[in-house]
């Protein structure tokens, strides 16, 4: 039940900033298109498959850091809410 409350609050926070969602979607799409264009026309040889694996790794690394930095930014802005709700025992810290 605690997890559901935290997810719901997070979902409402996302809905309050539709521009941010659009910017992240646009950024992810542009990075995917750029990486796709760089590796367009790869042959299915050993070198080509390694290049495709490199493109997948590059895309996943970009997505990981993009989400990690977004989490860091949100955590610093939501810290007062987190402290208030944890002290009032609305939910535990490990939720």
Share of helix, binned = over 70%
Give the rounded overall mean pLDDT.
84
Q: What class do helices, strands and sheet pairing give? A: mainly alpha
Order of helices and strands: HHH
DSSP strand tally: 0
Measured distance between first and last alpha carbons: 10 Å
Query: Compute the gyration radius: what is it?
Result: 19 Å
Continuous helix count: 3
- Pick out the low-confidence regions: none
Pfam families: ABC2_membrane
InterPro entries: ABC2_TM (IPR013525), ABCG_transporters (IPR050352)
GO molecular function: ABC-type transporter activity
Domain ABC-2 type transporter transmembrane: 2-92
What does it look like?
The chain contains three helices and no strands. The chain is mainly alpha-helical and 95 residues long. Helix 2 packs antiparallel against helix 3 (46-87). The protein has one domain. The longest helix has 42 residues, at 46-87.
């Amino acid at each position: 039940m605690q997890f559901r409350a935290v997810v719901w609050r997070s979902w409402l926070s996302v809905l309050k900033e539709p521009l941010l969602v659009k910017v992240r979607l646009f950024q992810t799409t542009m990075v995917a298109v750029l990486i796709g264009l760089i590796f367009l026309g790869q042959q299915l040889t050993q070198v080509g498959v390694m290049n495709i694996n490199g493109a997948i790794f590059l895309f996943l690394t970009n997505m990981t850091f993009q989400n990690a930095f977004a989490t860091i930014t949100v955590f610093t802005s939501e810290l007062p809410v987190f402290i208030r709700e944890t002290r009032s025992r609305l939910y535990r810290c490990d939720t």
